[in-house]
Amino acid sequence: MKSNNVAIAFIFALATAGAQPSDPLSGLGVEIGGGHNQLKWHSNGFPPISGPSDYNRQQFSLTPTFRLSYESRLFELIQITPFIGYDKFGGRSSQDPTGYQDEVWFSAVDFGLIASYRFSDFSIGPALKYNRLQKKTFRYYGVVLGQVGPRTWAEQADDFFFRSYSYNLGGRVSFALSHWTVSGEAWFGISEMLNADLASQISVHENHFRLLLGYRL
Prior knowledge:
By secondary structure, this protein is mainly beta. Helices cover 7% and strands 58% of the residues. It has a single domain, classed as Porin (Beta Barrel). An eight-stranded antiparallel barrel has the order 1-4-6-7-8-10-11-12.
């Protein structure tokens, strides 16, 4: 927990290094959007009767993102933008021949930092974020084997299996028109999502891709 708090503090402390505008609200922005998700799930032979295998959940799926940010100038063409927001990511499996399908979703409060190089109305740069996972949900359409009767969606909490946090490294491209921005982002998981006692048997990482519409003062 201490290391997570240090990471959050470091992200927002970097923002103070930027040049402060005369209007303290200048640079404040809001973004809303969403995008596709991938959940990479690799088993190292669990359950024991099976060998190593992949159970990736990367069927096309759209989930929402909402974000507040503050943009400040670090150098003439370099800007840093710390942000806080809500994100939902995870993954949906494809339907197998029996009709079974499932989904794993994480609802998170995320804290991040974007460093961007700006030229004309475009900007591009790397980004890092910390996700505080508030809700972890497993949804499944019937059962894998021995389905009796029609399939229906069921849902259960997955708090036991997953950690309460994750990290992503990513990149962002933006186009600005006056106060409006349109941005594309790609985020790649750089931390194991399963609890430590399960991580030796199964490895889970997630990626998500976002298209955002924003307004900045």
